[in-house]
């Protein structure tokens, strides 16, 4: 997967040096910084405390913590079994190996039941656990460090009042030298800026609230920014788009290829549930939208406000969106990709050409950002796996076509969709991409 | 289905040559001038449906070749009634089940038994057939005795052959010349003694299943008479919308299109092939403009809307007696949102208009009421219309089946001579079927110092639960015509069965009790009968509240119920369910809870009690049913496995209603229009185990089972949630976000 | 002309290649097993198997299936000679209205071909894409377990002989 991600990054615009060279450079830096800062690596343990009981927190504080935890997506990595929330165990595959979400229930032996607020705060701000060990930056403490004390306290109040679950999370499965935790001190020296988010100067409290939530809590750039060889976000390309679990995370800046420019309103709709112009979240973005659902609506609007502002006006060099991004060239597309057109008519059109009547479809596939993006991965994944809502909940249903359409047929279909609905250049290696993604282990 | 389908009506009317033919139905027909599905009973002293159709040969036909046909006016809806009536008839006729053919609801073949609904089929039809069969056996024995010159008492009958002691024998086929079975039933019959039963009480495999699992023709959807054409309708986008303009020219020019049918706001297209009909329907919809109708209630304010509408108040129960003095009083309100029937197969019908007569094959629940409605809509005489029941996808009440039959009839009239197959699209079924009404209840009760209920005050607010035909105005297509039929003013269904107030009167011993039915005539959404009607909500309310009362006095929920019940059969199902579930030593586990509930459906049908175990995911609020153990007393059990199948299904369907389901609206349109917007329970959420224990009562009347479990299941789930996490949810569906927030 | 292979028989059909398979099966080949439930790929009532994998025939154009082997419910047996899995559904009386059952059977058949000894969780996951409204879920599961047992039993008998 590391190879895959890396090779894919190579094809992305704005990525120049080969991944392995950057990795070597990165190692050098890490070694130097790690050596220089070795004395920094040692951190004291913080004394265990008796687990605080519910009465020691305000109910409002717990409720606030619940919303923050939800919009910080804690459960994505810390919950594997819905009946044992926050008990950890989720395998997070990184280019360096597999890390498992830890148990953050107040269990005293296997969770964080002995953590004081100070210990919890240090983990959030500095990525160091109660015993003084460095946490891997898969845990996004580079973002959480920016949270306010009050929000960290609310999160603490919430987590400490959950059911304690006894569950030992597996040790990280990482090869040398990544298994040496103290090296992370060097990483932190390079990439961690400890402390709350500096106040912005926009003078717009809604925008500032959105900035805080997006950066400190919901850590949007963790997926929507490219990462360097040491898997740190590249600050200079903040929001320039990235990859998450094999899905392309579109840019949230001016380089967005969205054919229909995003607005505060449409972003809010999308982040809240679904937008009639752009559609809804799929892949790893689905739990994000679900998580934001527990924030007050005004907070989600604030995030939308901030992201809309970072998107600004579309970049001048992006492929010109058609005046009407629907059916740009149906006749031409049909001619060029006759086979793809036939598949579209028989498999896709009954929902996607209903003019948006079928729930969770937009008036035209041409309105989806992913169809105009640089990588076909998301479209391929949706076609192969389909879209399925959480059990018992309202949400888009699309059948997967793995095993129905072969790689050639999916490639034909994608080539057709790209010509018919976008002005973007053809995706270069569709069949290979379909085969590569199709060969991955099925999820779930 | 009764016969293979052939292209012309004539074929249907011939080839059924038997000694005893349609005239036997004429007396019954003559007495229902209005053909309204509810004729006045000509023989109120007779059991079951014999009240309305007292002639034996309306039910049992014996042909000269000895073949035996049982005719029920009820319809197979997947509930297994065809098999159950066969068992009853075979038992009393002392025949091998394989020798008996069953004909179901058909306006020219069977008695008028109204709707197949309300868990009435066993009570009405199977009871009538049991008596008729026993009386036919007796009557034929008497004839044989005369023929053989001996006493009837010494004759034996087996497999349609009557034998004398000396070995002489005569077959039924030889005895049935003329109209010997055209006699009125007697009130009492000589049944096969319980210890001689061979068929009743056995789990005879369902007759319909082999065809269903192999792809043989099983449903109205599968009928393909020669010359059949396919039709689709274009429905208004919202309730009350009218067709303003239509440009049908392009669609009409399509070579595959036979005809575009328009009458007012009724719009349909007919094509030779089904896919062509569907694509033409889509094109036609794109060329139609509509004036949308009145606003729907705001989604978040459905209950406020309901509470603000005028009501007709009916006190359906009022009792006063001496009781202890109230020590404490509890009050609660419960509600249910609009819900759908949600058949998996959208409604379908086949219709043929030829020689001034109309034949419709439909899966609607009442062939006679449907005939009356279609005749009225088409301004034909009822005799010109024949309605034949053929199975469809399960309906669970009044779904769009009648509408589809009306669609097919209107279209067939426009293309006479060609059988028209009409099937609704998924969103048409979801958007236009009549919903189960939103309902609200309020209950207040007092307990004395000993923990006994001393007074009870209950009110249920509901729309009607019956907007079925026979009135043409109850057919959606008839409402859309240029000369529209207006829906009749809705009426409440009366006690003892009730509609919105079904099961509103507790079976418990309540010295002082008042039950008020607040009937709301105005319907914000189109509503009608959904399986169990108001019983689902009333039992949810009463049985939730019983737990709240028990908790208030620290009583065990099962003991508290038993303490307030006198009915021995009620006590027996409660004790059985509790014992089999291991209620008294149930294990406590974090986030798991146990719930119990009981009801006697309609207070005169089957008794059912169940215990459930749920598991709660606190951070998502998700409720999962893990296990259910139920005990049912449905009188004499004809087919135990059939009863189990019905009860299991009732529990799972009710779990889906209770945990997930609600119709959603925006200001002008219904927005729950498919399975993505109206999620239901899927396989992964199905419980691990369900056990059904049957308390067989040989000699007691048959009681239906199709609707016994819905209300108790809802209440048991709510009670189990309260037991698990201490949060009482009083609105259906039991919302996850509400539970999640309560558990934060 | 388009050649479809259904239940082992070849059919040369003059149909619009965009037509979803469902309508060709039902209307041109008079097969009842695949049923219209939603036309949106949401309910599974139309499930058939193509080269052993479950396919929703209501959203699959026939053009992509030319030359591939299609199996419908009818290919598994007849009322007179039902196949193993069909017999299992009869034995468990795993139907009420039965409208969803063909889709369940075909999807379960595809699962058992791929995995002759599936766990309960695996069966549930596989059948989660198919909706049942009557509440027959547990009987359907029991029938699939029974079919799996009987198929394995038959296979091990073959091994012995």
Automatic annotation (TrEMBL), chain A:
SUPFAM superfamilies per UniProt: Cytochrome c
Binding residues annotated for heme c 1, in chain numbering: 74, 77-78
Protein name as annotated: Alcohol dehydrogenase
Cofactor binding, note field: Binds 3 heme c groups covalently per subunit.
Transmembrane segments: 20-42
InterPro entries registered for this protein in UniProt: Cyt_c-like_dom, Cyt_c-like_dom_sf, Cytochrome_c-type_DH, Membr-bd_ADH_cyt_c
Protein residues bound to heme c 3: 348, 351-352
Molecular function per GO: electron transfer activity; heme binding; iron ion binding; oxidoreductase activity, acting on CH-OH group of donors
Swiss-Prot/TrEMBL cofactor(s): heme c
Native organism taxonomy: Bacteria, Pseudomonadati, Pseudomonadota, Alphaproteobacteria, Hyphomicrobiales
UniProtKB/TrEMBL annotation, chain B:
Pfam families from the UniProt entry: MoCoBD_1 (PF02738), MoCoBD_2 (PF20256)
Gene Ontology MF annotations: oxidoreductase activity
InterPro entries: Ald_Oxase/Xan_DH_a/b, AldOxase/xan_DH_MoCoBD1, AldOxase/xan_DH_MoCoBD2, AldOxase/xan_DH_Mopterin-bd_sf, N-heterocyclic_Hydroxylase, OxRdtase_Mopterin-bd_su_IorB, TAT_signal
Organism, as annotated: Methylobacterium oxalidis
Domain of life: Bacteria
Full protein name: Aldehyde dehydrogenase
Ranges of residues in domain Aldehyde oxidase/xanthine dehydrogenase a/b hammerhead: 214-294
PROSITE patterns with a match to the protein in the record: TAT
Highest classification ranks of the organism: Bacteria, Pseudomonadati, Pseudomonadota, Alphaproteobacteria, Hyphomicrobiales
UniProtKB/TrEMBL annotation, chain C:
PROSITE patterns with a match to the protein in the record: 2FE2S_FER_1 (PS00197), 2FE2S_FER_2 (PS51085)
Transmembrane segment boundaries: none
Keyword Cell wall biogenesis/degradation among record annotations: no
Keyword terms, alphabetized: 2Fe-2S, Iron, Iron-sulfur, Metal-binding, Oxidoreductase
Family annotation (Gene3D superfamilies): 3.10.20.30, [2Fe-2S]-binding domain
Oxidoreductase among keywords: yes
Any GO MF annotation of the entry: 2 iron, 2 sulfur cluster binding
Annotated ranges, domain 2Fe-2S ferredoxin-type: 1-76
PANTHER family from the UniProt entry: BLR6046 PROTEIN, OXIDOREDUCTASE WITH IRON-SULFUR SUBUNIT
UniProt-recorded name of the protein: (2Fe-2S)-binding protein
